[in-house]
Amino acid sequence: MSRRRGGIHSDDHAGFDRPRRRTRPRTKERPDYSDAPVGLVVTVDRGRYRCLLLDDAYEPTEVSLTATKARPLGRKSVIVGDRVRLDGDVSGVEGTLARIVEVLERTTVLRRTADDDDPFERPIVANADQLVIVTALADPPPRTGMIDRVLVAGYDAGLDPLLCLTKADLASPDELVAAYAPLGVPIVVTEPGSDLTRLRQLLSDRSSVFLGHSGVGKSTLVNALIPGADRSTSHVNEVTGRGRHTSTSAIALQLPDGDGWVIDTPGVRSFGLSHVTPADVLKAFPDLVEFTDDCPRGCAHDDEAVECGLDNAWRDGNVPRARVESFRRMVSARKLPYEA
Ligand SMILES: Nc1nc2c(ncn2[C@@H]2O[C@H](COP(=O)(O)OP(=O)(O)OP(=O)(O)O)[C@@H](O)[C@H]2O)c(=O)[nH]1
Ligand SMILES: [Zn+2]
C-alpha cells in the first residue's frame, strides 16, 4: 500500500496537492516531505529517537514523541540536536511511533574520529554553537591534554569554547586560568553553592554542549542550571578518583524560560581527532591567519616548523608570543594521548 506523502499535518497546508510532482518521471518517485512537521532530536536510545515537535518558527511545542529512522535514511546518522522531518503519527501519544524521513541541514557537527577504544568516526551533537568544557580542579585532577583536545574538537566544529572549572572548594583555579587565558577562552569557576549568574549569561540564547570526564560535576551543574532536569549524579570512586558512568546518552535540555539549550553528554573517555588539520585549528585564531601567508607550502605552523610566519609575527611584535604558543599547543594537542 502506498503511503500518502507529507504526514498527517500536511493537510493543513495550502498547496498540498500542487501538481508540481507530475512534471517528474513517475517511476522511482520519492515522497515529498518538504511540508512534513519538524522535530528536534533531544536524546537517542537504542535506535529510538526522542523528539520535541517544533512549530513553524522551529520553536519547541509541548508535544514530545518517539521516532524511528525511516529505511531510506540508511546509515545516515541522526544525532542529538538534529532537526528532522517526521512522518506518521506525531501525536506523541504513548505507544505511538513517528518516522524520521529527513535530517535537515546541520549548522555545526561536533564529532570525533576513531581512536583505540572505538574504530568508528562519530558525530556526537548537531547544531550546537558553544562547547562547555567542564573540568574539576581536583577529584578527579584536571588533565590539560584532555582540555586541549576538546578545545581543538570545538574549534574544528566551529563552536565557541567555554571553560568551566568546578570544585574550586578543593583546589585553586589560578594555574589553569593562567594557562588558558591567552587563548581568549571565557572561564567560569564554580564550587558548591556558587553564584551561577555569569554562567547563565554565557549560556543565554545559545545551544551549549557540556563535555567532560566522568565525575567532574557536569550533572551537578546541569541540575543547578535547570531545576527539575534530574540528571543523576554519581560519586567519585575513592580508589580510582573517577566517577561511575552514570549518564549513557547525550540529552538536550532547555534552560528555564526557553533561554537556550544545554546538551549534556556522557562522561567521555576518549576523543579521536585525526580528522583535524592545523588549518582547521588556525580558523579559530583569526588574528594569526595573515601571518601564515608567507609560510612555506604545507607548513604545519607547529614547534618544529621551519621559517614559519608565526615566528616572525611574534618576533616583530605583531602578536603576543603567548598567543602563538597557545595556538601551537592546540596544533600539537591533536597528537597527545587523551589522558595526558
Ligand atoms: N567538592 C565538590 N564536589 C562536587 C562539586 N560538584 C560536584 N561535586 C561532586 O562530585 C561528584 C560527581 O558529580 P557529578 O555531577 O555526578 O559528575 P558528572 O560529571 O556528571 O559525572 P558523570 O555523570 O559520571 O559523567 C558528586 O559526588 C558531586 O556531589 C564541587 O563543586 N565541589
Ligand atoms: Zn607556518
Automatic annotation (TrEMBL):
<feature type="binding site">
    <location>
        <begin position="212"/>
        <end position="220"/>
    </location>
    <ligand>
        <name>GTP</name>
    </ligand>
</feature>
<feature type="domain" description="EngC GTPase">
    <location>
        <begin position="126"/>
        <end position="269"/>
    </location>
</feature>
<keyword id="KW-0342">GTP-binding</keyword>
<dbReference type="InterPro" id="IPR030378">
    <property type="entry name" value="G_CP_dom"/>
</dbReference>
<keyword id="KW-0963">Cytoplasm</keyword>
<feature type="binding site">
    <location>
        <position position="308"/>
    </location>
    <ligand>
        <name>Zn(2+)</name>
    </ligand>
</feature>
<keyword id="KW-0699">rRNA-binding</keyword>
<dbReference type="InterPro" id="IPR010914">
    <property type="entry name" value="RsgA_GTPase_dom"/>
</dbReference>
<feature type="binding site">
    <location>
        <position position="295"/>
    </location>
    <ligand>
        <name>Zn(2+)</name>
    </ligand>
</feature>
<keyword id="KW-0690">Ribosome biogenesis</keyword>
<dbReference type="InterPro" id="IPR004881">
    <property type="entry name" value="Ribosome_biogen_GTPase_RsgA"/>
</dbReference>
<feature type="region of interest" description="Disordered">
    <location>
        <begin position="1"/>
        <end position="34"/>
    </location>
</feature>
<comment type="similarity">
    <text>Belongs to the TRAFAC class YlqF/YawG GTPase family. RsgA subfamily.</text>
</comment>
<protein>
    <recommendedName>
        <fullName>Small ribosomal subunit biogenesis GTPase RsgA</fullName>
        <ecNumber>3.6.1.-</ecNumber>
    </recommendedName>
</protein>
<comment type="function">
    <text>One of several proteins that assist in the late maturation steps of the functional core of the 30S ribosomal subunit. Helps release RbfA from mature subunits. May play a role in the assembly of ribosomal proteins into the subunit. Circularly permuted GTPase that catalyzes slow GTP hydrolysis, GTPase activity is stimulated by the 30S ribosomal subunit.</text>
</comment>
<keyword id="KW-0547">Nucleotide-binding</keyword>
<feature type="domain" description="CP-type G">
    <location>
        <begin position="117"/>
        <end position="271"/>
    </location>
</feature>
<dbReference type="Pfam" id="PF03193">
    <property type="entry name" value="RsgA_GTPase"/>
</dbReference>
<keyword id="KW-0479">Metal-binding</keyword>
<keyword id="KW-0378">Hydrolase</keyword>
<feature type="compositionally biased region" description="Basic and acidic residues">
    <location>
        <begin position="8"/>
        <end position="18"/>
    </location>
</feature>
<feature type="binding site">
    <location>
        <position position="301"/>
    </location>
    <ligand>
        <name>Zn(2+)</name>
    </ligand>
</feature>
<feature type="binding site">
    <location>
        <begin position="166"/>
        <end position="169"/>
    </location>
    <ligand>
        <name>GTP</name>
    </ligand>
</feature>
<dbReference type="InterPro" id="IPR027417">
    <property type="entry name" value="P-loop_NTPase"/>
</dbReference>
<feature type="binding site">
    <location>
        <position position="299"/>
    </location>
    <ligand>
        <name>Zn(2+)</name>
    </ligand>
</feature>
<keyword id="KW-0694">RNA-binding</keyword>
<comment type="subunit">
    <text>Monomer. Associates with 30S ribosomal subunit, binds 16S rRNA.</text>
</comment>
<keyword id="KW-0862">Zinc</keyword>
